[in-house]
Amino acid sequence: MPRFFADNITENDIFLTGENARHIGRSLRMRPGETLTVCCGGTDYDCQINHITEDSVYLDLIKKHPCEAEPSIDVTLYQAVPKLDKLEYIIQKSTELGVSRVVPILTKRCISRPAEKDFAKKLPRLTKIAEEAAKQSGRGKIPEITPILSFYQCLETIKKNEKTLILYEGEGGKAFNAINFNNIKSAGIIIGSEGGFDLSEVETAVSAGAERIWLGKRILRCETAPISALSILMFLTKNM
Question: Do residues 38 and 62 lie in contact, with contact meaning Cβ atoms separated by under 8 Å?
């Protein structure tokens, strides 16, 4: 069924407005009696269209259930800012893989260094990319795309994760399958941009509680590394 996202749901009064309503009525040309799914906070509401107005679609609830596509682990991707097209790709693919939020960060070797105000203007487009990827992949939530943070601001936020990993191609890192994810409900992955990390950043992250890991002897592009790491993480936590 077509999927749409809503911020709030009242089971006795479910309706969609704005762009969602226009898409249902004008683009999809759906009619009363047809069914669709409204997603809110990880719960799927399977509904039947009751009636459609110019700017609203009113729905009758058939049943609600947890979204089966949502992973059992809450994952935050701390992505050092690459060029914009690469960041868009990373957001799209990490959404499909089940990431809960993407936190863009500025590190010493970032080639792209947008100002906070300039980056804030891009957030609506980046969030839209996450929304479309969430619909396509059957997600029950749209991942949060946060404002840009400095590397050291990022390290302050990792304390809320049960486990945080930092990818670094140098010697001394653990293999991914050496990490124990038993009973872990929240994790973070810190990944560099085109230039990777300065060693001092890696050492600081480890001092802040991150575990250093590597993905083998091959050097992966900055847009390949997060997709690989998330795929492995989802597999090891039985979400793939």
Answer: no
CA distances from 93 to 133, 161, 210, 228 (A): 8, 22, 24, 10
From CA 173, how far away is CA 152, in angstroms rounded?
21
3-class DSSP assignment, residue 9:
coil
Structure token pair of residue 121 = 């203007």
The two tokens of residue 59 are 């729905």
The H-or-E segment that residue 218 falls in is none
Nearest to 3 by CA among 159, 132, 171: 132
- pTM for the model: 0.91
Cβ-Cβ contacts under 8 Å for 158 (sequence gap 6 or more): 78, 164, 188, 190, 205, 208, 209, 210
pLDDT 10s digits, 111-136: 999 999 999 999 999 999 999 999 99
Q: Which residues contact 161 (CB under 8 A, 6 or more apart)?
A: 76, 186, 187, 188
Nearest-10 Cα torsion for 224, 227, 228, 231: -170
- Rounded to whole angstroms, the Cα distance separating 169 from 239 reads 26
CA angle, residues 6, 58, 2, in degrees to nearest 5:
55
Task: Give the number of other Cβ atoms within 10 Å of residue 1's Cβ.
Answer: 11
- What is the rounded CA–CA span in Å between residue 148 and residue 203? 22
Question: Which H or E run contains 22?
Answer: helix 18-22
